[in-house]
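Q: Sequence in, structure out?
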Amino acid sequence: MLIWQIGSMALGQEILLVSPVRVLVRLGQLVCEPAFWHSILFSSLRIGAGFFSAVFFGVLLAILSSRFQAVKELLAPAMLAIKTIPVASFIILALIWISSRNLAVFISFLMVLPVVYTNTLNGIEDIPEEIVEMAEVFAIPPGRRMRYLYVPQVMPYFRSGCEIALGLCWKSGIAAEVIGMPSGSIGAMLQQAKVYLDTPDLFAWTLVIVLISVTFEKLFLFLLQRGSRMLERM
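A: Exactly. Output:
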């Protein structure tokens, strides 16, 4: 922050590098505007919907792939394509089929899905075969097998995947909004600040994105950890 402030004062051109003090002042002004909270709610709901949908389908597809080799082979090229094709290409292509208001949902979903799928599948496949065979020999019920065998073994992989995916979903979701510019979104506010060379607004909204992303990540991982501990105690 100190280096940032010194650099801004040395440059002396706020349009190129605004000071952190000016950014915080502008952020304080934005907080008092109803449109600010509407934009946060608009983007958070859509990016959150994309993330949770991807988590659900990523886990489901990982379970199916672990049981059926054909499903795994069928999904492999699709997951590879999603991971290698640039996000901007997906955004532009998706705009042909999807309205800009729901673009962030689809893009967030698309970016999170392969991460959750791959990590969950790796966790399932890394369970020692001896333990699985022992559970079958002693005819352990599926519910208890899931609770005491699969969940503890897969949870570290799933958590790691979610940590990576949480950052990706916000980056890709906001990028989709910047390109699609749905009215009332954070991405539209960023694009508007860029067009009008409003550097304080640009930095203030970027700070908001970072704060929301970190808060969302910490809250989700906290609830995930609490849920895992409650399951162990039951």
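The mean pLDDT is 85.
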